[in-house]
TrEMBL record:
The keyword Oxidoreductase does not apply. One of its GO terms (molecular function) is hydrolase activity. It comes from the Bacteria. Pfam families: Helicase_C. It comes from Paraburkholderia largidicola. Keywords: Hydrolase. This is ATP-dependent helicase HepA. Coiled coil: none annotated. The keyword Coiled coil does not apply. The lineage of its organism: Bacteria, Pseudomonadati, Pseudomonadota, Betaproteobacteria, Burkholderiales. Residues 545-709 form the Helicase C-terminal domain. InterPro entries: Helicase_ATP-bd (IPR014001), Helicase_C-like (IPR001650), P-loop_NTPase (IPR027417), SNF2-like_sf (IPR038718). NCBIfam families: DpdE.
């Protein structure tokens, strides 16, 4: 739920007082037959009951379910009993002297007698003792309504059925992961698969390891939102730990994309890695912990990082749901990666076994290289790969059996499409991947297999110019290098700092101060440094680079829709560049700013305007602060590098702002190149041709980058500029350091990466989104037309079926009386979480919901997100409220009508043919599964994950069964039987809703034939229909398909488990065996729920087909 939940009761009371006061009467002992509520749990949630008397201070309260159903009687202390007045619009039932039931609604419940409006204009004052009100429990069986003739118009039944069917289709498409549909995101298949794996697993401890820019935050955001949807309000606490630069971004994403803004700081805490000590209590109570950039916490490069990891280690093993987010490859930093995996699974990854972990990584390399070759098109080279496996792993009996099986097929020279060959190849590959995968709960997607998911990098264009002071500065820098080489060994930190000056001439740090800080007291060196500082300042003050920047942007901005991000390393440079550009381009240029803690978060920052008003703001000038925590992707973005930072990692951070997951044109980069500075040119070449950072991401190479820069520091001091050129040569080419590292990382990642999925889950989600018009029609018909909510559009009402305007639902009051057919108290109880208390309302007593659209794309625009517009789907509080109302309310659950067609030939001598209509929902049976050693949180995760799993396998199925008056199933109902309800003449046809008067006025032949033993006839017809539904070809096929899919998953799981067990020993093997036993038990529970599904009667109705109208006066 999305409403702030510090304490639900105060919110209810505050809103109730604001919108209409309380219905509770002053405390007094009630009379027998009076309406009351019990204030003690669990009965406080049961709603309105009737006082049935008291003995020795113990009261009896009777709860009414439906006409014809047995009431429920409970006992509670008399002090817990509160008399109430029935609110306006309360739905009431009255049993008439004839035994028939009449349904009405309260128009005034404050007097001694209750004024009730009945159908057909009838109204009366009725004593409370003669009325009944349904309790707040779901109506499980609508048949008593039909048998007692307490039916409603077919219009309500059809409206309710259309709504519930659309809701069920969405649940089915989402596999029960409603957060995926109700978030303002454009979820794609690989992200949905990650979310699905996590949320259908009873053990929700995962490392999400997608490469940079593929949307790990989106995956984690959906899981966080689902956590808050699954857990009861007030008992769900989650903590997100993120680097300081990403805290603001996380807060914005959780608010605008995932609708969790009202939970922030109360139940959802986003905390900087540096401030984790401040949330010790929150960590102790957390049901979900998300750690972004988890590798940052495992470096142990400072005392703070060690302390932070130890604190996290203490909590992570206890918190039932853990998500670690990190794109860092295992080869980059094995020791740090081991610490990350230890948080995930301390048994499989003990911290004191780094040597063993390194051996696992080393043994994976041959396997990783072979797996990369196991594709059908490599048919003629596979023998050599099998020989490698046999030489390295000959002791692995299971592996050798699979190698021999494939070798035997290869010896028969199969085609690439040969089924036996393809199956044996897949069998060997599965065994290798599962045996040598680091952990089954590492989920990794790679850019190389998802190139469509992010804008590609389209290379670098150099913009040359010459500055007046660069040559002098360069000569002095060379003089300093030569002089420092003659001194004693230089500290590594000084080498790194001086190299930073070499690679980026815009660095404003004083070289003299650097020397002094490192205790360099050589007078000549200090004198050269003084001169160098002066030359650097004069060079930086020159206009040549700024003029070149302006000329470059003039050309770029001539391209329609192009937007430019100017990256500067230094704040002063960024300020000067912004001012210089504003003189030429005016308000089209804005300067990136970071929000201070005291500033109003509702005021958009310049970079937000750059994203939201793309036609007006076309240039964003940034300094180094924008290299983390700001997402600028989408549209036609162009990067202009005012200078080049001294590390490829920082270039990666810059471009990572632009090429993240989502739509956008290829990212072209421009670099301003001072030809008077050969070091700058050599460094640009290194970044471009060596690291290739402007063509593809180098995020996975960050540790190679660090070691390579350390080597460059030494080589530059020894050789000068040629060292940079040689460095570029060593990095580049197919046999260069970069390509070899990429190949090793690629092979290792291949073992842990998610494979091709044969699921059609995303197709169903897409089809669901494409059906937004049908969803809109169903919701508006049910909420607007049937329940009388007012649909308030922001603009004009949609002019055709393809237009989609943002809207709110308004609870309508007229002259102090509700027009919406729900009492205010019931509305506040059921719909509280959907009320936007900040919404502007022109009527103080007409609460409004949040703003919604039906078409997903309309909720994804920056303007819609900034205005809080949501996409309306299951998982949203409004839909959940309407679902809860449908469960509790009896309207639309039973109908009866007399259908006249003057051309119809009646077969029954009574003058009308009788047909029952039963709408059933078939769904997985309630799951019964329990694992030893799990607390309440663990059992909750278990039940939720199994329910989602079973729903994904056996989607809710709607079956409509017709039974005629003789008890025979009508396999092919006629068009006349299934036609929509029409209460006016259309040619020879008209329908008449059987209200109480018309039930009473049915012709005597009908009364003496069909209605003679009406309850028994209804019960027999229902029994016949239920059996027919369960035995129908459609139902049997649906169940058979689900069981087949479960069997397929089970065989794959067993094969994967056996592959892992073949290599495990000790504690790891015991854990794997325990998990296999648990999985077997859970699979058996799922199988039972699928094999014998529940069948619920949703709607019961009856149609009398006749050729004459018996009701005309």
């Amino acid at each position: 739920m999305l409403f702030r939940r510090v304490s639900e009761k105060p919110d209810i009371e505050r809103i109730r007082v604001y919108f209409g006061g309380s219905a509770v009467m002053p405390a007094a002992r009630p009379e027998v037959g009076a309406f009351v509520q019990i204030t003690a749990v669990p009965y406080s949630a049961w709603g309105i009951g009737k006082f049935a008397g008291a003995t020795n201070g113990i009261a009896r309260v009777q709860y009414f379910d439906a006409p014809g159903a047995e009431p429920q009687v409970v006992e509670s202390s008399l002090t817990n009993i509160k008399p109430i007045c029935l609110p306006t619009q309360t739905r009431v039932f009255r049993r008439q002297s004839t035994g028939r039931w009449q349904v009405g609604r309260v128009t005034d419940g404050n007097g001694a007698a209750i004024f009730v409006q009945f159908p057909n204009g009838e109204s009366a004052n009725v004593e409370a003792a003669d009325l009944q009100v349904r309790w707040n429990r779901p109506l499980r069986d609508p048949l008593p309504l039909l048998t007692s003739e307490a039916t409603e118009t077919p219009f309500l039944a059809d409206a309710r059925s259309a709504f519930t069917r659309q809701v069920a289709l969405q649940y089915s498409a989402a596999s029960g992961i409603t957060a995926a549909l109700s978030s303002s995101i454009e979820l794609v298949d690989y992200q949905f698969e990650v979310v699905r794996r996590v949320l259908t697993d009873p053990v929700q401890r995962y490392l999400l390891a997608d490469e940079v820019g593929l949307g790990k935050t989106i995956e984690a955001g959906v899981i966080i939102r689902q956590f808050f949807l699954d857990i009861p309000p007030g008992s769900s606490h989650a903590v997100v730990l993120a680097p300081p630069a990403l805290v603001a971004q996380w807060r914005e994403e959780l608010t605008t994309r995932f609708g969790l803004g009202n939970d922030l700081d109360d139940f959802l805490h986003v905390v900087s890695h540096e401030d984790v000590a401040d949330v010790e209590d929150e960590l102790a109570n957390a049901g979900l912990l998300v750690v972004d950039e988890a590798h940052h916490l495992s470096r142990f490069s400072s005392e703070h990082e060690i302390t932070l990891y130890r604190r996290l280690q203490a909590h992570a093993h206890r918190i039932p749901r853990l998500l670690l987010l990190s794109a860092t490859p295992v080869l980059s930093d094995p020791e740090g990666f081991l610490r990350v995996l230890h948080l995930l699974d301390p048994v499989a990854f003990p911290l004191d076994d780094l040597d063993g972990f390194n051996r696992r990584i080393a043994t994976r390399q041959v396997v990783a290289e072979v797996v990369a070759m196991l594709t059908p098109e490599n048919l003629w080279s596979l023998t050599g790969e099998l020989d490698r496996l046999q030489e390295a792993y000959g002791e692995d009996i299971t592996l050798m059996e699979k190698v021999d099986a494939l070798r035997a097929i290869l010896n028969a020279f199969p085609d690439e499409e040969d089924e036996a060959y393809v199956n044996a190849l897949a069998d060997l590959k599965t065994h290798l991947v599962e045996s040598y995968r680091l952990h089954r709960r590492i989920l990794r997607n790679r850019r190389k297999s998802l190139q469509w998911a992010t804008p590609r990098r389209a290379g670098l264009k150099r913009v040359p110019f010459r500055s007046a002071g660069a040559e002098r500065w360069r000569r002095q820098l060379e003089e300093l290098r030569l002089h420092l080489n003659g001194l004693d060994t230089l500290p590594a930190t000084l080498r790194a700092a001086v190299l930073g000056h070499v690679l980026n001439s815009r660095d404003r740090t004083s070289v003299r101060k650097l020397l002094e800080q490192h205790n360099i007291r050589d007078d000549e060196a200090l004198e050269i440094a003084d001169a160098l500082d002066g030359s650097a300042e004069r060079m930086r003050d020159g206009q040549e680079r700024l003029d070149t920047l302006t000329a470059t942007l003039e050309g770029i901005l001539a391209t329609p829709n192009a937007q430019v991000v100017v990256f500067c390393s230094d704040r002063t440079d960024a300020d000067r560049a912004a001012q210089h550009l504003q003189r030429s381009f005016g308000a089209q240029v804005v300067r990136h700013e970071v929000r201070a803690n005291c500033e109003d978060e509702d005021t958009p920052l310049p970079w937000q305007k750059f994203l939201s008003t793309t036609d007006k703001v076309r240039v964003l000038v940034c300094d180094a602060r924008a290299e983390e925590g700001v997402n600028l992707h989408g549209g036609k973005k162009i990067a202009v590098h005012f200078d080049m930072p001294g590390s490829p990692n920082r270039c990666e951070q810059r471009l990572g702002r632009l090429d993240r997951f989502g739509k956008g044109d290829p990212i072209v980069s421009y670099a301003l190149h001072d030809e008077s500075n050969p070091d700058e040119g050599a460094w640009i070449d290194t970044l471009d041709t060596g690291w290739q950072v402007f063509n593809r991401s180098v995020a996975s190479l960050q540790y190679l980058i660090e070691s390579a820069l350390q080597t460059l520091e030494e080589e530059w001091f020894a050789q000068g500029t040629p060292a940079i050129r040689e460095h570029a040569t060593a990095l580049s080419g197919p046999m260069g350091l970069v390509e070899r590292e990429r190949k090793q990382i690629d092979h290792q990642d291949g073992l842990d990466a998610l494979g091709e999925q044969e699921l059609d889950a995303m197709e169903q989600v897409d089809e669901c989104d494409q059906s937004w018009r049908e969803w809109r029609a169903a919701l508006i018909r049910f909420a607007g037309e049937a329940l009388k909510f007012q649909v308030r559009y922001d603009g004009s009402r949609p002019i055709n079926q393809d237009s989609d305007e943002a809207f709110r639902l308004a609870y309508v009051m007229e002259h102090g009386v509700p027009r919406t057919l729900i009492p205010m108290g019931g509305y506040l109880r059921t719909f509280l979480q959907s009320i936007d208390v900040d919404a502007p309302s022109d009527r103080s007593r007409s609460p409004l919901t949040y703003r919604y659209v039906f078409r997903r794309q309309n909720a994804l625009t920056r303007a819609a997100r900034s205005q809080g517009v949501r996409v309306l789907r299951v998982g949203d509080p409004l839909v959940a409220s309407l679902e809860a109302f449908c469960e509790q309310d009896d309207r639309g659950r039973a109908f009866a009508m007399w259908r006249v067609d003057r051309e119809y030939e009646v077969h029954d001598p009574s003058g009308a043919d009788l047909f029952f209509r039963f709408d059933f929902i078939i769904r997985p049976a309630a799951l019964v599964a329990k694992l030893d050693g799990r607390g309440a949180d663990g059992q909750s995760i278990l039940e939720q994950s199994l329910t989602r799993k079973s729903q994904a396998l056996l989607a809710p199925m709607f079956l409509r069964i017709w039974v005629d008056g003789s008890g025979a199933v009508v396999s092919t109902p006629s068009e006349l039987m299934e036609a929509s309800y029409t209460d006016f003449w259309q040619g020879t046809r008209r329908d008449f809703n059987l209200n109480p008067r018309r039930w009473r006025d049915l012709p005597s032949p009908i009364q003496t034939s069909w209605l003679r033993d009406w309850p028994a006839l209804c019960a027999e017809a229902r029994q016949t229909a239920e059996a027919a539904a369960l035995q129908s070809d459609a139902c049997r096929a649906h169940v058979r398909q689900a069981l087949t899919a479960l069997d397929r998953e089970e065989r794959l799981r067993h094969a994967q488990t056996e592959s892992r067990l073949a290599r495990l020993t000790g504690a790891q093997r015991r854990c794997e065996l325990e998990e296999r036993s648990n999985d077997d038990a859970l699979c058996a529970a799922i199988r039972n729920s699928l094999a014998e599904p529940d069948i619920d009667l949703d709607v019961a109705g009856v149609v009398f087909l006749a050729s004459e109208d018996p009701f005309e006066q």
